[in-house]
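Open question from group meeting: does this chain pack into something compact, or does most of it stay loose? Before anyone orders reagents, we agreed to write out a predicted structure and look at it together. Recording both the input and the output here so the notebook holds the full record.
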Amino acid sequence: MDTLTQQTTSHHTPLWNITSIVSLFELPFMDLLYQAQQVHRKYHKPNEIQLSSLLSIKTGGCAEDCSYCPQSARYNTEVKAEKLMPLDEVIKAAKTAKNNGSQRFCMGAAWRNPKPHQLDEIAKMISAVKELGMETCVTLGMLQDGQAEQLREAGLDYYNHNLDTSPEFYGEIITTRTYQDRLETLQKVRNAGLNVCCGGIVGLGESRQERAGLIAQLANLNPYPESVPVNNLVKIKGTPLYETENLDPFEFIRTIAVARITMPKAHVRLSAGREQMEDGIQALCFLAGANSMFYGEKLLTSQNPQEQSDLQLMARLDLQPMMANHA
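Structure tokens returned:
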């Protein structure tokens, strides 16, 4: 049986069920943060943040219908379809990211799945970034047999493939690929010996129970992901979710805390939506156990706080960048 499906068997009983995760969400806010901070200190240095930069190497024109995504060809947004970025431009961006303090360089392409000739180009990019002494991560959509191994041989450290939301709510957001498709790609990544970067998006209009369902899926992957990005929906005009009601920021912080408690050794990353967060909310996210963030000007197509303001916030909170190869 697929070890990544959340099924109860005699071999792999889920450690966390939805009921137990909902009960964490329902703790008094201060009690939840206290518990999350205790777990965080047990497994991590409490004042270190892992810094990652993200570059969109192939923007727009995606065939998928993810309701939140301005890169879908189905929606009338201001994102234009572009070709794959040339290798020299990728290397230049990676050098800039490294000079600005990032340890991990993530490259994202808006594809349903990469074709063999595209993967050959990506492999060159991975090798070039690896030569700069940075950790490498890519997100390219679904993978075919053998592709994860090719990426690993090029020097890839992490493959990102998010579950997005719970299985119960998933059909409300995406119809062009199934939840099982996502799990199967994650299994290919694991089988190739790569680290898994896998999280989701909150604020899609899901209930707290459905947020708990996403955490249950992630926490019961065997093993759970090394890196867990938690995205807060960035509402883009032209996408179906543009009018969605904002998630209460304290509910977002609760989600970070629950992710930390259920996946104690993972790097829990503040990802999309940070531009919209007040400094105090971000500080509470770090208290709740977030110890990684995307850092730099852009997250694929969304604005992100500038490096300078990030460094100023970290200085005000006495947070240090995590040393390279620590993650």
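Observations to bring back to the group:
The chain has eleven helices and twelve strands.
The first strand starts at residue 48 and ends at 58.
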